[in-house]
Specification:
Largest sheet of chain A: 2 strands, antiparallel
Number of strands of chain A: 6
Largest sheet of chain B: 9 strands, mixed
Structural class of chain A: alpha+beta
CATH superfamily of the largest domain in chain B: FAD/NAD(P)-binding domain
Strand content of chain A: 15-25%
Number of helices of chain B: 18
CATH class of one domain in chain A: Alpha Beta
CATH topology of the largest domain in chain B: FAD/NAD(P)-binding domain
Low-confidence stretches of chain A: none
Mean pLDDT of chain A: 93
CATH architecture of one domain in chain A: 2-Layer Sandwich
Oligomer: heterodimer
Number of helices of chain A: 4
CATH architecture of the largest domain in chain B: 3-Layer(bba) Sandwich
Chain lengths: 94, 456
């Protein structure tokens, strides 16, 4: 991952949900054939990452999501909902 | 275009009127449930409880403002009308005495700035606040008048009975339901609850902007020196042109007590098409030769991202449903850079409608439409209407901010620069320079389009 982003994300406080993933891909085969992969550049916290595996062309690093919710609008294959109560990111500085 | 329009107009009827019969006899039933403890939800809860309603406020974060970020300021007179002399009790950061717009290119900056000590006297104009502290203050006010609040409660959808909203479903770990006569959705720009319940259409990626922010710590004295401010006072700067790398978007600088908030963003669709990484825009601004000295020596405290509705009047969905009202960002009630005051006022209006409904024990769409009427009669809808064409103008002229920032900076450069040629020749030279960037007729047509929108 991009070093600048890594540094930025390290400043944030997260309560990761180990049992439930709030961002998912509906159909990985669509991603395999997708030429644009806008999710890779769009996500402000780099949740989507390319994977060399044929079966799972995208990795979802949902634990670093900042919950902006934008991804669900750029791709119909992304299923986004907010994390369950008490989990996810917290912003402190306004 | 057409596809987006169609999607925006067509609600996705996933769970709408998922009718069931709920046994509410053995459960506590509230007068109203508010989803989301932001400015809209917390204001609605406060004003309802103040009028004697039994209110439950549900928030998915562990504290108010935990799930949102971005530098912000209150519009003082609007807030003062709702919460008289709020500045005495509310945790304010800086009273804004300098408001500026900066038009930037990669090497220049043309600033229009207004600074006045008049703005330093009550009732002030803008006051910068930190979201967490301000939201907490609003929620505390609600709690003082008896609002029940549950944090870490994530509402997933609305429960209906005979097409009437009667309650909300909370996700696990609580996995419970709450029931009330009136449901108020103030769950923010993504409006996920309304969407999942089939009340709000899916937002178009053109109508929602993604903003990234960085909070950069600097000593208060340094901020005051660099921005030419008296102690305790602040500036609010909108930056156009360079920050959004050729697209129509905005950047802003908010001064807080001992930090600066740098925001930049544009429409989600523009990010998606351009392939620009949102945080790269932040890096780009921070490296700009004229911005860099302002931030020198600062340490980044926090990074974040959030979405803001920018569709304006035409993107406002149906706000009143049987037993249910939609407030603030969830109802796309954002006018340019104004959001929080619209949110708080929509909370206030919804509280009036809720109170009238309770009095008459009538929770129908007709009764709750008082909310919509109050909105229509207020500055909220009137201002949104007046600015209704801005969203389409930005789509019509995708080069608007970038190109004209370049033109004004070019002009300013040649005007400022002293040449050895005679004055008259210089004027012709400047004219030729400008019209070489954008032909005169094209420029005239752009200006005409902008004027038409401003005229309303």
């Amino acid at each position: 991952m991009n070093k600048e982003l890594q540094e930025r994300l390290s400043l944030l406080q997260y309560q990761p949900d180990e049992k439930w993933q709030h961002v998912t891909i509906l159909d990985q085969t669509i991603c395999r054939d997708c030429k644009n992969k806008q999710c890779l550049t769009f996500c402000p916290s780099g949740v989507f990452r390319e994977n060399s595996q044929e079966k799972q062309p995208l990795l979802i690093l949902y634990k670093q999501c900042v919950e902006c919710g934008g991804c669900r609008l750029i791709c119909d294959n992304i299923d986004f909902s907010y994390p369950k109560g008490g989990y996810g990111v917290t912003f402190l500085e306004g | 275009m057409l596809k987006h329009w169609y999607q925006a107009k067509k609600p996705q009827k996933i769970g709408k009127y998922n009718n069931a019969h709920y046994d509410t006899s053995n459960r506590e039933k509230y007068d109203a449930i508010v989803v989301g403890a932001g400015p809209a939800g917390a204001s609605a809860a406060y004003f309802m409880a103040k009028q004697g309603l039994n209110v439950l406020l549900l928030e998915r974060g562990p504290f108010p403002g935990a799930k949102v970020c971005g530098g912000t300021s209150l519009i003082s007179e609007h807030t003062h009308k709702l919460f008289p002399n709020f500045w005495d009790e509310c945790p304010c950061e800086r009273i804004v005495t300098q408001q500026a717009y900066w038009f930037m290119t990669e090497d220049s900056l043309l600033s229009t700035s207004f600074q006045s000590t008049k703005l330093a006297a009550a009732p002030y104009n803008h006051i910068t606040v930190k979201r967490k502290l301000f939201y907490q203050w609003l929620v505390d006010k609600g709690m003082a008048v008896g609002v029940d609040i549950h944090f870490n409660h994530h509402v997933t959808e609305v429960l209906f009975e005979n097409n009437q909203a009667v309650g909300v479903q909370v996700s696990s770990p609580q996995k419970c339901q709450f029931f009330a006569n009136i449901i108020i959705l103030a769950d923010g720009a993504n409006a996920m609850v309304g969407q999942r319940s089939g009340l709000v259409p899916r937002v178009s990626p053109q109508d929602l902007a993604l903003y990234v922010k960085e909070t950069i710590a600097l000593p208060a004295k340094v901020i005051e020196e660099r921005f030419n401010l008296l102690p305790g006072y602040g500036s609010l700067i909108g930056v156009l042109g360079y920050p959004t790398a050729g697209f129509n978007g905005t950047s802003s600088i908010h001064t807080f007590k001992d930090c600066i908030n740098l925001n930049v963003g544009m429409a989600i669709s523009d990010f998606a098409i351009s392939g620009i990484r949102p945080y790269d825009l932040l890096d780009r601004i921070k490296k700009h030769p004229l911005i860099k000295p302002l931030l020198l020596g600062g340490t980044v405290l926090e990074y974040g991202a959030a979405v803001i509705p920018e569709g304006g009047y035409h993107a406002v969905p149906e706000l009143v449903h049987p037993g249910l009202m939609i407030l603030g960002d969830a109802g796309s009630l954002v006018n340019g850079t104004h959001g929080i005051n619209l949110a708080m006022w929509s909370g206030f209006f919804a509280a009036q409608a809720a109170n009238e409904s309770k009095k008459s024990r009538d929770f129908s769409i007709e009764k709750l439409s008082l909310y919509r009427t109050l909105l229509d009669e207020s500055f909220i809808m009137q201002d949104l209407k007046a600015n209704a064409k801005i969203a389409s103008l930005q789509r019509d002229l995708p080069y608007l901010f970038d190109l004209y920032s370049k033109i004004v900076n070019q002009t300013a450069f040649h005007v400022a620069k002293v040449y050895t040629m005679p004055k008259k020749a210089k004027r012709i030279f400047i004219f030729k320079k400008i019209t070489s960037i954008q032909p005169l007729l094209k420029m005239a047509s752009d200006i005409w389009k902008v004027l038409k929108v401003v005229k309303g």
